[in-house]
Write a structure and sequence with these properties.
Pfam families: PGM1_C_vert_fung, PGM_PMM_I, PGM_PMM_II, PGM_PMM_III. By secondary structure, the protein is of the alpha/beta class. It folds into three domains: about 1-180, Alpha-D-Glucose-1,6-Bisphosphate, subunit A, domain 3 (Alpha-D-Glucose-1,6-Bisphosphate, Chain A, domain 3, 3-Layer(aba) Sandwich), CATH 3.40.120; about 185-405, 3-Layer(aba) Sandwich (Alpha-D-Glucose-1,6-Bisphosphate, Chain A, domain 3); about 410-540, Alpha-D-phosphohexomutase, C-terminal domain (TATA-Binding Protein, 2-Layer Sandwich), CATH 3.30.310.50. It is built from 18 helices and 27 strands. Bound molecules: 1,6-di-O-phosphono-alpha-D-glucopyranose (G16).
């Protein structure tokens, strides 16, 4: 029986960089999830007779939320739901499934790399017909609707079964429970040279380790790397998804994937290491004794794209988020293809990909992807690297070094200050904003400021404008310092400081990054007064 439940708005339902992310206990408040879902269904266009994909990263509350969404979808017009078995779909797999079955859109339940469990985080976002995150026009409409909501509609019925693959009906609505891995694995085999990768993984010498961090990519990596590509059993570690990610923080970076990093930096270690995050869209790439920064990884993938079957014909263009280093710009220039600079947030790549203006995109936040779907894709990046290694028959370290020798190196680091009080963070950003008009022309530690602004993006496709996307300070020598507040945290504010220096001298390509960037790090602290305002002596995380 369909019931209309009376409700009242919650004032904290504005989606951030990637959907609505909150503590689980916030989502557990009566009517909280239901209000957001109703606001979402009311904002995404005509839902009558449409097909909706649903899945999540398996974290605590995933299945509970899915049952609610299913019961609301049934009375909001949908005619068919496609749901991953056990409610699982990695974010890239959800994007793949939306596109493959030409669905109206999808609901993805994830808080990405944020810790999970009863005390952890939960999240929900809507992806549109192209498989990508809803643009700001829709996320803002969801927020506005959430602020005026007075009731929602839900079917009163028993829970559906998420365990058996197959078809069931809820009133007139068809529900297909699908294998969450199969469609994605097939797509990967269409893109990459699986026989070449298989030959590498089975040559008896090459060793690799993939850390699924107890999150969603375990089943995907086991199926693709171990089963289809023949990597030895045990290549995938922490491969069984757990509702609390085993108490960990599935963020594939030097801090949170420390065990993997240690193994790759040991005297005798694997040739290749990789990790993905909670929902499978991020990636970290390591070689024996080397960490490849996400910005370098983007540049190297683009420079080697012709080795990959799907990209043999060349790239239409490359896109990167504004804070991502300019390493890929050098590749675009050499390939004579356009380079696009967008705000942080994968949603900003969607229009460029749909318009076929770019083929490969990437972000400093461990995200890389291409036109094959409309989300960043962790395992895709790992397979891309394996394909390059299989063809070039060189180590990761040799490939990176040769890349720097050819294109120059962009030394790059990101310093995160997590959970600082929101008022302090706002004060710090306001202080920077006030300095903007006077900075150009000033000499700071020997670097002359070329420009200072708060980044605005003018989308060349739909002409929309996104303002206040981060404070940029560019120097005449190509160095950059960027400040912005994260849009994905759930506690206090996270200040991100991005620092980049350009090096073309072949004698200076192999220095320690933090040492090389020391003078710029000092400039950043003195301009933003980080230490004095936050009381912190060091960042929480350095990547
Ligand atoms: C999300 C977005 C990314 C963004 C990242 C960090 O990733 O999809 O585009 O780069 O957050 O954003 P922020 O710097 O605002 O925290 P994910 O993997 O968390 O979904």
């Amino acid at each position: 029986m369909s019931t209309t439940i009376t409700s009242q708005p919650f004032n904290d339902q504005r989606p951030g960089t990637s959907g609505l992310r909150k503590r689980v206990r916030v989502f557990q408040q009566k009517h909280y999830l239901e209000n957001f879902v109703q606001a979402m269904f009311d904002s995404v266009g005509d839902t009558q007779e449409q097909t909706l994909v649903i899945g999540g990263d398996g974290r605590f509350y995933n299945q509970t939320a899915i049952q609610t969404i299913v019961k609301m979808a049934a009375v909001n017009g949908f005619k068919r739901l496609i749901i991953g078995q056990h409610g699982l779909l990695s974010t890239p797999a959800a994007s793949c499934v939306i596109r493959k079955y030409q669905a109206f859109g999808g609901v993805i339940l994830s808080a990405s790399h944020n810790p999970a469990g009863q005390e952890g985080d939960f999240g929900i976002k809507f992806n549109i017909r192209n498989g990508g995150p809803a643009p700001e026009s829709i996320t803002e409409a969801i927020y506005q609707n959430s602020q005026h909501i007075s009731s929602y509609q839900i079917l009163e019925c028993a829970d559906i079964s998420l365990t058996e693959i197959g078809t069931q009906f809820l009133q007139d609505m068809q529900i297909d429970i699908i294998d969450p891995v199969a469609d994605y694995a097939e797509l990967m085999s269409d893109i990459f040279d699986f026989p070449a990768i298989r030959a590498l993984l089975c040559n008896g010498r090459f060793q690799m380790r993939f850390d699924a961090m107890h999150a969603i990519t375990g089943p995907y990596a086991k199926e693709i790397l171990e089963k289809r590509l023949g990597a030895e059993a045990g290549t995938v570690i922490n491969g069984v998804p757990q509702a609390d990610f085993a108490g960990g923080h599935p963020d594939p970076n030097l801090t949170y994937a420390a065990e993997l990093v240690e193994e790759l930096f040991a005297d005798i270690g694997p040739d290749f290491g990789a990790a993905s995050d909670g929902d499978g869209d991020r990636n970290m790439i390591l070689g024996h004794g080397i960490f490849v920064t996400p910005s370098d990884s983007l540049a190297i993938l683009a420079a080697n794209a012709e080795l990959i079957p799907a990209y043999q014909k060349g790239l239409k263009g490359i896109a990167r988020s504004m804070p991502t280093s300019q390493a890929a710009d050098r590749v675009a220039q050499a390939l004579n293809i356009p380079m696009h600079e967008t705000p942080t947030g994968w949603k900003f790549f969607g229009n460029l990909l749909d318009a076929d203006m770019v083929t490969i995109c990437g972000e400093e936040s461990f995200g890389t992807g291409s036109n094959h779907i409309r989300e960043k894709d962790g395992l895709w990046a790992v397979l891309f690297w394996l394909n390059i290694l299989a063809i070039r028959q060189q180590s990761v370290s040799e490939i990176v070094r040769q890349h720097w020798q050819k294109y120059g190196r962009n030394y790059y680091t990101r310093h995160d200050y997590e959970e600082i009080p929101i008022e302090i963070a706002n004060q710090l950003m306001e202080g920077l904003q006030q300095q903007i008009p006077d900075l150009a022309g000033q000499s700071l530690n020997g670097h002359i400021v070329d420009y200072a602004d708060n980044f605005s993006y003018h989308d060349p496709v739909d002409k929309s404008i996104a303002e206040n996307q981060g404070i940029r300070i560019g120097f005449t020598d190509g160095c950059r310092i960027i400040f912005r507040l994260s849009g994905t945290g759930t506690q206090g504010a996270t200040l991100r400081v991005y620092i980049e220096a350009i090096e073309d001298n072949p004698d200076n390509l192999f220095e320690d990054t933090q040492t090389r960037l020391k003078d710029l790090i000092e400039i950043a602290d003195s301009l933003a007064k980080i230490k004095s305002l936050t009381g912190r002596n060091a960042p929480t995380v350095i990547t």
